């Protein structure tokens, strides 16, 4: 069943009679529950033009769970852009470009994309929603805020073995939450290196800025796997971390940028979903990366 267009902003525009949140008329809102699927589809088809006329900033897309999964799969297999998760200043990117060898699998409730330098997993429940902000622009996936909250820390924290690793071979490696202090995402490093595990454990409980001062070069030199995740998305980046003065390699990579982290944002304000939702992943079409 196709979900309701409601985004929690329930106010009618006096001039057009259309809701400033979803674009429906009062009659369409009142009759929604009793409408057939065909009638709902017909209403959905009118909403983009209505919302554009109202200059509405964000638009909820009508996709069912299966349609969303198929769209995500197509973005990867057709090499149409880049998937990201994380927060401003602490983000992982999984590019879907023609020169990259990527295998896509559906495993139970998850879509998993594997490349030599990274893996990307998206768990798609029937609560995941897609939001658009402009024609041909980024698509933000979100969950209700209560479902989007993730266990995270504001200091470096040992999480033990990475039991939620995408592939079984990595489940015994040790995972450390860097402690960026966000509600909806966390930036972690994962390693089987004894020396790095010891150094990270010795600095547990410290703010990430202090950790970087103490063992930053050791972390860079060891180049552990970076694991950036939300309640629905996880990107594991295996590519080498560039040392100071080196460029990031082409392909999957992470950004850990102290100046951006100071802002405390969960997502850039221009891509913030409606108040009832929180971001879990963002897709940037190729056209925006050129």
UniProtKB/TrEMBL annotation:
<dbReference type="InterPro" id="IPR010710">
    <property type="entry name" value="DUF1289"/>
</dbReference>
<dbReference type="InterPro" id="IPR053838">
    <property type="entry name" value="DUF6925"/>
</dbReference>
<dbReference type="Pfam" id="PF06945">
    <property type="entry name" value="DUF1289"/>
</dbReference>
<protein>
    <recommendedName>
        <fullName>DUF1289 domain-containing protein</fullName>
    </recommendedName>
</protein>
<dbReference type="Pfam" id="PF21973">
    <property type="entry name" value="DUF6925"/>
</dbReference>
